[in-house]
Amino acid sequence: MKHSEASKAIGVFLISAFLASPCWGQTSPDLKVIEAAKKEGEVTYFTTMTVDQSKDVVERFEKKYPFLKVALFRTGGGPLLNKILTEARGGRFAWDVVVGRGEMVIPLTERKLLASYHSPETKMIDPQLVDKDGLWTAYYVNGYVLGWNTKLVKSQDVPKTYEALLDPKWKGGKISVDTEAYGMLEGLKGAWGAEKAVNFFKRLAAQDPVVKRGNTERVQLAVAGEYALILAYNQTIQRMTSRGAPIDWLPLEPVVIQVNPVMVGSKAPYPNAARLFYDFILSKEGQEILRGMQRIPVPKDVEPDPPRLFRGFKYVIENPEGYKDFEATVKQYLDIFKLR
């Protein structure tokens, strides 16, 4: 073989090998971090995600990195924040990674309990879902949308805008609203300004909606025909839609997107294992696990199931850093719906 032909053949081989590599289009873990994590041997993971789903994620991580064992602790958002802050006051820092609710970010930041970490996986995530200082990244999101019982409401009659939801024909217990959808008010404040957002919710309250706690239970009641319309998380409605239940949903733009962030502890006992776990759950592999659980993944290269859960509509992020005035928003929401 001539020299030029040999060079060409080698070049083709190298390009083919590169394209065939499993790392193509993906981020390779930092070998130094892996070696350091091996020496640590474990990682402690606090989360608000359901136990069965969290266990699935942990098992996949341990299978990928068999030299690491994950200690899992799961509870609700309020109790989890209280646990972290109470232990910190006593000088105990037991957690490495936490996945919680957006309102946890400011209290943890103010007490300097969060480490700055810029994961290489964030390059595939909308910058709005990544903290510029590396204190948090969205692990998964929820979208507040409008659902309807398909036996009670024809698709052509469904309100297509927030304003249409205020039509008098939807007055009198025909709309379901969550008692704790404070984030929706906070998000619309960011999109419209406080005056317009508060005015909308006052007019919504004047529709005499059914105000009840819980997305899952309310969606089930909507399926049963208790009310025609429901403001709830899109993935909760979609689970029922996918099962053939008489319910569907559409986005009222802008859709308020609630962020469920992942964070690394500034005093993490196992900081390298923490970063490895953080990278894993944000990676394409980790986010595909979420998709299989019918949660909404965040990277641009992992489509939700179905894609419409986070594609094709305008949205506004309920930014975790926007919780500085959250107590005022909660008070406004409770006052508007006369919940106290």
Topology:
Layout: H1 3-20, H2 31-40, E1 42-47, H3 51-64, E2 69-74, H4 77-89, E3 97-99, H5 105-110, E4 137-149, E5 175-178, H6 182-192, H7 194-205, E6 210-212, H8 215-223, E7 229-233, H9 234-242, E8 247-250, E9 255-264, H10 271-282, H11 284-292, E10 315-318, H12 326-336
Parallel strand pairs: 1-2, 1-3, 5-6, 5-7, 9-10
Antiparallel strand pairs: 3-9, 4-7, 4-8, 4-9
Helix pairs in contact: 2-10, 6-7, 6-12
Give an account of the 3D structure.
The protein has twelve helices and ten strands. Helix 3 links the parallel strand 1 and strand 2. The N terminus is likely disordered. It has 340 residues and is of the alpha/beta class. The longest helix has 18 residues. It is globular.
Spatial gap, N to C terminus: 86 Å
Number of strands: 10
Bulk shape:
globular
Derived from helix and strand composition plus strand pairing, the structural class reads: alpha/beta
Radius of gyration: 23 Å
Count of runs of 4 or more consecutive helical residues: 12
Q: H/E element string?
A: HHEHEHEHEEHHEHEHEEHHEH
Proportion of residues in extended strands:
15-25%
Kindly state the mean pLDDT as a whole number?
91
List low-pLDDT spans: 1-25
Q: How would a crystallographer describe the biggest sheet?
A: 10 strands, mixed
Tell me the helix content: 25-40%
